[in-house]
Amino acid sequence: MHIAYWVFYGIVTLLFGAVLELNKNTIIGWILLVILAVIFPVLYMTKLSNGRWFVKLIAWLAYFALFFGILLATWPPVKAVPASDDPKPEQTGTIMTEDGLVRGVYSKDHTVEIYTGIPYAKA
Predict the structure, then answer these.
(1) 104: number of Cβ within 10 Å
(2) How far apart are CA 113 and CA 90, in angstroms?
(3) How many CB atoms lie within 10 A of CB 5?
(4) pTM for this structure?
């Protein structure tokens, strides 16, 4: 097997792992990626090492497609994160921005005003 295959395979698989990490993917996504990363070179070496170039291309496209399938199937749930650690934060006064009025909350120790979200004005 050519060194170019292993270099390309390593870079692609590391990039897949980086995408999962940056996406804060679930543990099942990581398990499926490891399974895919183990099975692909075994199949490639046993079945496709002497194959034609278009068969190898289809195998690589399948590798990418399976990764994106794993990514979509194991997408982490969206969760709301509160702006303040205080269970019942006190609201700040409203301020006017280009896009409209914005209201925030105080931090737990009332030293910082926290404004989150993006205000949208009526068009």
Answers:
(1) 19
(2) 10
(3) 15
(4) 0.62
Other C-beta atoms closer than 10 Å to the C-beta of 40 total 19
Residue from 13, 20, 77, 22 nearest 40 by CA? 13
Question: Is the predicted pLDDT of residue 35 greater than 50, yes or no?
Answer: yes
Rg value, the chain, Cα: 24
Average pLDDT over all residues of the chain: 85
- Looking up tokens 């398990």 gives 31
pLDDT in tens, 61-95: 999 999 999 999 998 888 877 778 888 888 888 88
Residue 15 tokens, joined: 């990039």
- For the chain, the domains span 3-73, 81-123
Q: Is the dihedral of CA 81, 87, 88, 90 positive or negative?
A: negative
- Total residues found in the chain within this entry: 123
User: Within 10 Å of residue 32's Cβ, how many Cβ atoms?
Assistant: 20
